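Protocol step 4 of 6: structure prediction from sequence.
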Amino acid sequence: MQKVLCVGEMMVDLIACPIGEVMLQCDYHPMDSFVVTAGGDAHNNAVDMARLGNDVTYMGRIGKDMFGSFCLDSLRREGINVEHVVFSKTAEQAKSLILMDKNGRRTFYQNFETSEEFCFEDIDLGCLDHTNILQIGGTFHMKKFDGPGAVKLLKAAKDKGVTTSLDVTMDRTGRWNEILEAYYPYLDYFMPSIDQAREIAKTDNMINMADFLLDRGVKNVIIKDGEYGSYFRNADTAFTCGCYSVPVADATGAGDAYVSGFLTGIGQGFSPEESARLATACAAHVIQEVGATTGMKDLETMMHFIERNEEITIKYDKH
């Protein structure tokens, strides 16, 4: 069992579906479902990795409102260690209103109160003595932690021999490498989406995206490309991994599930190819249910799913 530390953003997700065109001049719209669930990148990673059998600790800020308690309870129910969370006296829990149509397409309305308040001083570095894997989630929503704070944590983790990993959100301000450049030398795994990698590397070519990051010190790059699969690249090998064909109810949390599955595979001693298959299976389960973590199952279920289904394609890139 790997000891995992998940650091960063936790939100409450308010999911309304199905939603058609929103016309504010109309005072009524029928709606089949309104789901309130916990989310946010670091929360999703923590829940997913706990269900996959890891020993997980979460660090982040908890809001002063009822949604803060709601999110905290969602972690406790999964057996996640929350002894090191910081309770805000001023901020409400970060929130995400997700409007989703009948085909699973979404738009987000978000605020980031607790995410923006979270800072390096909230971190208990002593936990690194008992951590195998560090996963940071929510970068670009945590303005007090992003940049120097995250670098301090990553450097401290590497000094302790901890495997480090990072996932990011979309940066609407265009800073990208102004923030991330200092992270790269301390990252064992970096797993952006293709849209994020495109903004970071200023190229449409996945090979060039990965090379951009490897040249700056990242050890292993995984680019998530939605329904088209994923691309892995390090100094020794490069390959694309396909996807499982499953019905899509809600794509929220798919990227977080992929990250959680990949890191779980690495922690289990799997090869990058085996880890990518596990990650893809995790994402395939999550997208079949509404909610960022609702569809995540245990590791045994995931491995049975992989065994029962036709093997997804691994295509190697010569480099």
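Step 5 (inspection) to follow. The chain has ten helices and 15 strands.
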